[in-house]
């Protein structure tokens, strides 16, 4: 998974990136500090792996991961090349989803590129640039399809969808807000439009607000906007996350509890990312390692096995499967088998989140 972190300059993108990836991206109090996107691979926290490690006496844990791209701040006119905009928009196009960091805190020591704190205006600025870039791409594609239709009468449906997308863009709306059928959505996804990418709005608040559990007016405005397009919102404090990232694993939870926080911003962001991209994890376990594997919800058993090795998918026979909760309840695979909780699933089985699986295959 590749997720691009975007936003206006100086909203806390690189601070957040540093905190959740510990990859050392440069963070400074001036625009365009980031030119090339920094890339950080983040392990996805999954407490089930620790439990399985103890159960199987495994030598190591291998979590699944997400790639976060810290993309430089966009400004008005980015779609026309302002502030290296074309280059930055190209970086966004390579991502599967977007985390849009929005500044929801006041601090006179941190400059704002627009001169004031107004998260809805910030969101509009970014969205409009994505929409304008999409409009240019769509115009070219629509023109090409119309010319092609003179000799190919089968693309009438394609033109109809393109024209519907054009109407949405002309209205200044993001393509992700469109009501599309599954087939229509699959076609629109092939266009790789920026405003069609799923998005999480990340409201960056002050340490005082996050510790007090206060939802300030800026956050309320962001949540209301996100609800209007059925998007998710994660509220974090970049400063706190940076402090958490500098602690040893054993000290992090204690620090969060001291602040009255149940979980880190990373945990929130990962959960929201999974929901955003319709992802789940299945698990494998043994004496050598326990590992989490990421798949999309609705993936069948052979394709899930293919995530481990192509030979498993090619020579798939069956998958010995048990729900994580059932395995923990009965303590061992043997005990779970005695009560019928271990199943042999075939090629049509849709893998569930938390399935502990052992694949049988022959090639």
Describe what you observe in this structure.
The protein is α/β, with parallel strands linked by helices. Strand 8 and strand 9 form a beta hairpin. It contains 15 helices and 12 strands. The chain is flat. It is 44% helix and 20% strand. The protein has a 6-stranded mixed sheet with strand order 2-4-1-5-6-7, sandwiched between helices. The protein has a 3-stranded mixed sheet with strand order 3-9-8, with helices on both faces. It starts with a strand and ends with a strand.
Q: Can you describe this structure in just a few lines?
A:
The protein is α/β, with parallel strands linked by helices and 363 residues long. It has 15 helices and 12 strands.
Radius of gyration, in Å, reads: 23 Å
Beta strands, count: 12
What oligomeric state best describes the polypeptide chains here? single chain
What does the main sheet amount to? Answer: 6 strands, mixed
Distance between the termini: 29 Å
Helix and strand run: EHEHEEHEHHHEHHEHHHEEHHEHHEE
Shape: flat
Q: How many helices?
A: 15
The residue ranges in which pLDDT falls below 50 over 5 or more consecutive positions are 23-35, 81-85
User: What portion of the residues fall into strands of 2 or more residues?
Assistant: 15-25%
Q: Structural class, judged by helices and strands?
A: alpha/beta
The pLDDT mean sits at 85
- Helix % is 40-55%
**Strand line-up across the major sheet:** 2-4-1-5-6-7
């Amino acid at each position: 998974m590749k997720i691009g972190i975007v936003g206006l300059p100086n909203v806390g993108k690189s601070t957040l990136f540093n905190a959740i990836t510990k990859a050392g991206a440069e963070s400074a109090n001036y625009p365009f500090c980031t030119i090339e996107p920094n890339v950080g691979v983040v392990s996805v926290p999954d407490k089930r792996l620790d439990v399985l490690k103890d159960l199987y006496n495994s030598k190591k844990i291998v979590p699944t991961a997400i790639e976060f791209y810290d993309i430089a701040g966009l400004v008005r006119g980015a779609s026309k090349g302002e502030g290296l905009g074309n280059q930055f928009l190209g970086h966004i196009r390579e991502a599967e989803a977007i985390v849009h960091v929005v500044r929801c805190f006041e601090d006179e020591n941190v400059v704002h590129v627009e001169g004031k704190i107004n998260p809805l205006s910030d969101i509009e600025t970014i969205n409009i640039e994505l929409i304008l870039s999409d409009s240019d791409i769509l115009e070219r594609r629509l023109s090409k399809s119309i010319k092609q239709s003179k000799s190919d009468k089968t693309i009438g449906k394609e033109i109809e969808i393109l024209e519907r997308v054009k109407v949405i863009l002309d209205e200044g709306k993001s393509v992700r807000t469109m009501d599309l059928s599954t087939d229509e959505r699959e076609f629109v996804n092939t266009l790789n439009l920026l405003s069609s990418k799923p998005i999480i709005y990340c409201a960056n608040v002050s340490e005082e607000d996050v510790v007090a559990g206060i939802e300030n007016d800026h956050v309320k405005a962001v949540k209301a906007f996100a609800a209007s397009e059925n998007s998710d919102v994660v509220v974090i404090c970049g400063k706190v996350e940076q402090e958490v990232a500098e602690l040893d694993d054993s000290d992090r939870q204690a620090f969060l509890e001291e602040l009255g926080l149940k979980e880190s911003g990373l945990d929130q962001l990962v959960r929201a990312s999974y929901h955003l991209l319709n992802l789940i994890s299945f698990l494998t376990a043994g004496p050598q390692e326990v590992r989490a594997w990421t798949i999309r919800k609705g993936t069948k058993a052979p394709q899930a096995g293919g995530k481990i090795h192509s030979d498993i998918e090619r020579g798939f026979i069956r998958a010995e499967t048990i729900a994580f909760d059932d395995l923990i309840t009965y303590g061992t695979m043997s005990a779970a088998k005695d009560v019928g909780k271990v199943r042999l699933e075939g090629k049509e089985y849709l893998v569930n989140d938390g399935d502990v699986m052992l694949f049988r295959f022959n090639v």
